[in-house]
Design brief:
GO terms for molecular function: S-methyl-5-thioribose-1-phosphate isomerase activity. The record marks 164 as: Transition state stabilizer. This protein has 365 residues and is of the alpha/beta class. Helices cover 38% and strands 19% of the residues. The chain has helices at residues 40-48, 55-72, 76-87, 94-107, 115-150, 178-186, 203-214, 227-232, 258-267, 300-303, 353-360; strands spanning 2-3, 6-7, 11-13, 20-23, 34-37, 158-162, 191-196, 219-222, 238-241, 245-247, 252-255, 272-275, 281-282, 304-308, 314-318, 331-334, 341-344, 347-349. A seven-stranded mixed beta sheet has the order 8-7-6-9-12-17-18, with helices on both faces. The longest helix is centred in the middle third of the chain and has 36 residues, at 115-150. The protein is globular and about 65 Å long.
């Protein structure tokens, strides 16, 4: 996608050919900062500190993190240790495990001297494939938006609600839930996006809104608890969000608050779609509810908030009274029964094992 007049992916090799550059997402929307990663430690920090986030991008960053580690030591022991360090950074998104296992499968059979070159080849392939998968998701999701727009009365705008950030910043390029929106907008479909702020880190207000504004997509940022009201009053035509892990039965784990939006959509008869590339499917997890490891992040993300003051100075302020504690569950699981359909790179299917296996029968285990 573009920032200004320049095309960017969310992660890319530096001009030196071995270090990696990322967009530091903790600085958005107020500053556009490019950060250079030149060690395993910096790659692991980028993931854990959410300089990069979104399941596909986490996986891609981990792959390059392994490349950086192998430049220092390409032995079996070092490879396993580096993979374990990267895997420990964030527990919920399955793409992290998927990318590291793909790297190890390709690298372990090779002599140590050949591993660095191969590692960069595989990491680049993971990035290129992710961009292609997400563009395909955009094409399949576009048909859903076109059908929804066709049901509107002449002159009525299509209203879409999304949660968190599932745009190109969450992937290598295009995004998952936002990819169909970009394609529909570019085709001239009159649409508007309700952007959940997505507390506590405000990925909707900070990242999704920034993306949509850069692409000139009409949108409005809303507080997280406004979605139900909008749905009750006919102001939402469909919902589409991403996912960090999809169980084999179609349960989906996504940013905290997704489950509540799905319940509101179900109560109001509004389609609720999940957009996902196939590496997000955890075929070994039969169901998601009660089984996906839910990341608990620092309470300071809840108790404090950052923003620009009236003088344009970036400040952090405390929100809670002295003595109050904060809990910070980062994800929740939406049962498959509340999901209208899964939008994948191979098409749209029902949220069930049968639906997923119908598209990915060769990959199911």
């Amino acid at each position: 996608m573009k920032v200004g007049n320049r095309y960017y992916r969310s992660i890319w090799l530096s001009e030196d050919g071995w270090s990696v550059e990322i967009i530091d997402q903790t600085c958005l929307p107020h500053e556009f900062v490019i950060c250079r990663l030149d060690s395993l430690e910096k790659a692991a920090h980028a993931i854990s500190a959410m300089q990069v986030r979104g399941a596909p991008l986490i996986g891609a960053t981990a792959a390059y993190g392994l490349c950086l580690a192998l430049r220092e030591d390409s032995s079996d022991e070092a490879l396993d240790k580096a993979a374990a360090e990267l895997l420990a950074t964030r527990p919920t998104a399955v793409n992290l495990h998927w990318a590291l296992e793909r790297m190890k499968t390709a690298l372990l059979p090779l002599p140590a001297a050949e591993r660095v070159t191969k590692a960069y080849e595989v990491a680049a392939a993971i990035c290129d494939e992710d961009a292609a998968l997400n563009e395909a998701i955009g094409s399949h999701g576009l048909s859903l938006l076109q059908a929804a727009a066709a049901r509107k009365r002449p002159g009525e705008r299509l209203n879409i609600l999304t949660h968190c950030n599932a745009g190109w910043l969450a992937t290598v390029d295009w995004g998952t839930a936002l990819a169909p929106i970009y394609k529909a907008h570019d085709l001239g479909i009159d649409l508007h996006v309700w952007v959940d702020e997505t507390r506590p880190r405000n990925q909707g207000a900070s990242l999704t809104a920034w993306e949509l504004a850069g692409h000139s997509v009409p949108h409005s940022v809303i507080v997280d608890n406004a979605g139900g009201h909008l749905m009750q009053n006919g102001m939402v035509d469909l919902c589409i969000v991403g996912t960090d892990r999809t169980a084999a039965n179609g349960d989906v784990c996504n940013k905290i608050g997704t489950y509540l939006k799905a319940l509101a959509a179900h109560d109001n008869g509004i389609p609720f779609y999940i957009a996902l590339p196939s590496p997000t499917i955890d075929w070994g997890m039969e169901k998601g509810v009660g089984h996906v490891p839910i990341e608990e992040r620092a309470p300071e993300e809840v108790s404090h908030v950052r923003g620009l003051d009236r003088k344009g100075v970036l400040r952090e302020v405390s929100l809670l009274p002295d003595g109050s504690q904060a809990a910070n569950y980062a994800f929740d699981v939406t049962p498959a029964k509340y999901v209208t359909g899964l939008v994948t790179e191979l098409g749209v299917c029902e949220a069930s094992r049968n639906g997923l296996e119908g598209l990915f029968h060769s990959r199911a285990v």
